[in-house]
Amino acid sequence: SLSQPETEKMFHRGPGLNLTSGQYTAPITGYYTFTTTLHIVHREPQRKRQVCRGTRLRVLICVQSCCQHNRNLETSSRLESRGDLFTITVTGVLYLQAGQYASVFVENAAGSPLTVQSGSDFSAILLGV
């Protein structure tokens, strides 16, 4: 079945995605391919212009909120300019037991606000059991 969430221009198919919690729960045990694409604006405070330049941002897709080695997908990006929109993508395959969930985490070490823009996405597709 295809559901139309309340947010315009978004859709999801199947029962696994919870839009309130941001978690995808595996309906059956198997290998899933996950992808997230985040459109992010880095807003650096005026007084910290030079101090925070070049800070790294990590985006992870983790199983059961445990972001340990071999239980997550991750990428990192260097924040070079302030106020600019940039895109960061994480994709890969994770094995989930039925009932386990995966979700997206953003680790912001910049010390200044980041805003995730509309048009960002998170998807999961069952590859096989």
From TrEMBL:
<keyword id="KW-0964">Secreted</keyword>
<protein>
    <recommendedName>
        <fullName>Erythroferrone</fullName>
    </recommendedName>
</protein>
<comment type="similarity">
    <text>Belongs to the adipolin/erythroferrone family.</text>
</comment>
<keyword id="KW-0325">Glycoprotein</keyword>
<dbReference type="InterPro" id="IPR008983">
    <property type="entry name" value="Tumour_necrosis_fac-like_dom"/>
</dbReference>
<keyword id="KW-0379">Hydroxylation</keyword>
<feature type="domain" description="C1q">
    <location>
        <begin position="1"/>
        <end position="129"/>
    </location>
</feature>
<dbReference type="GO" id="GO:0045721">
    <property type="term" value="P:negative regulation of gluconeogenesis"/>
</dbReference>
<dbReference type="GO" id="GO:0046628">
    <property type="term" value="P:positive regulation of insulin receptor signaling pathway"/>
</dbReference>
<dbReference type="GO" id="GO:0005179">
    <property type="term" value="F:hormone activity"/>
</dbReference>
<dbReference type="InterPro" id="IPR001073">
    <property type="entry name" value="C1q_dom"/>
</dbReference>
<keyword id="KW-0732">Signal</keyword>
<dbReference type="GO" id="GO:0046326">
    <property type="term" value="P:positive regulation of D-glucose import"/>
</dbReference>
<dbReference type="GO" id="GO:0005615">
    <property type="term" value="C:extracellular space"/>
</dbReference>
<keyword id="KW-1015">Disulfide bond</keyword>
<dbReference type="InterPro" id="IPR052136">
    <property type="entry name" value="Adipolin/Erythroferrone-rel"/>
</dbReference>
<keyword id="KW-0372">Hormone</keyword>
